[in-house]
Please model this.
Amino acid sequence: MEVKEKAKLITEETTSLVINNYENKKRSDIFTIFGILCFIFILLLLITFCIFTLINTKSNKIANGVYIKGIDVSNLTKEEAKQKISQYINSSIPEEIKLKHNDFETSISPSQLTIYFNTNQAIDIAYQIGKNDNIFQNNLEILKALFFKIHIDPGFTINEEQLKHNLQDISSKLPDRVIESSCYIDGNNLIITKGCKGTIIKVEESANYIKNNINILNLQNGPLELITETQSPTPINLDAIYNEIHKPPVDAYYTQNPYRVHPSENGLDFNISLEDAKKLLQEEKEEYIIPLKIVYPNITTNMIGTEAFPDLLSEFSTKYATSNRNRTTNLILAANKINGTVLMPGETFSYNKVVGERTIEAGYKEAPIYVEGRVEDGLGGGICQITTTLYNAALFANLDIIERSNHQFIPSYANASRDATVVYGAIDFKFKNNRNYPIKITCSVANGIANFKIFGLKTDEDYDVEITSRITGTTSNAIYSEAYKILKKNGAIISSEILSKDTYKKH
Model:
């Protein structure tokens, strides 16, 4: 029994040993196969990595999965991507950006806003994905773009100041806009109109809202709603209005070194106290009327003596018949209106404005005038002699003649083309002080002579003036003439210009 048991034990041990050796050999084979497979996998991975890297390194196109402004630019060259993005952006921005507030609609031109999307920079960023110096990082970026997508916003710039300016302008045109209080002068009254509550555009918020919609290219889906708020008008500030309206009078004066005339200015003031004006505004009214008064200076410009005008620039006289008292009266009235007139540099003299309407109330008399080729008595007759005398004085002072018309017939007191006529409300005589210093006009009508003198300050730029006129032709019904102005310096002719070509009827 012991021998059998020992044999059995030996057999079992031998069997176990054989099995163990087999299993160990089998495990070793598995490890060997696994190792070979791992080596092959790594080798394939390495080959794939190298090929993948080589392809990406040599590629001149943007990696897969890259988007700019939501547009897929995968596998595009930079130029192709630029063309595609630019076309998309241009097609997404309309010719007019439409805006609305309730039923009110308006628009802003994008060309005014100088909208610029930085597509070149965005395309450069997209192109550089997977093209850096680190090949491992490159491949990682490419895989990330492929599986997770990469979105690039190019960003944009806009003329924000212009946008806000446009919005402020639109705000002032809203149908339900705020009506601010206002004031204006009508004759001798200050009219103040009361404002009313309304809507204004919230410029900052609306500008940001519009910019955001431009950035996301959301401009084709109907008008953008403006952001507004209700606002009350600015309360009437009578103190501020008074400070703006009130102006004290300024007396005229002059200085001699250098020669300069400082003209007088009329003042303006409320014709009631400021306290009474404020009481008026306490009433619930849409319009308030505050009476005004003109405050005159103590010394007007015309009151400055001729000592402020040291040089006689020109003088001209015409003769009249003292026997015609009515006509003489008219001459004196017109001359007195003009006498002492001062014209500042650049100021224009208007005969009708200075002399005024010739009326009975003003003292004018009936005297002969030309009416449709006939001589008839008319109110203010004869005053054209004053016009003519002043016209010639202005010519000799080398002043700019702005408006002048000749008579129907050649007058007895002047040669052809040396006269000037006026008709109140229809024909005026005007000239301009083209000098750098004020001029003063003095005139007198006495003893059969109407005389005009123009004073000012002579300079080295002044010329000696000659006026010539001549008859150029006659017919059975008409006389033709022309006048010239010749400027001389030290006896030499500097220039010669034609003043007028005139046609007169024959008596």
User: Anything to note?
Assistant: Residues 2-58 form the longest helix (57 residues). The chain has a mean pLDDT of 88. Residues 180 and 233 are 5 Å apart (CA to CA). DSSP finds twelve helices and 28 strands in the chain.
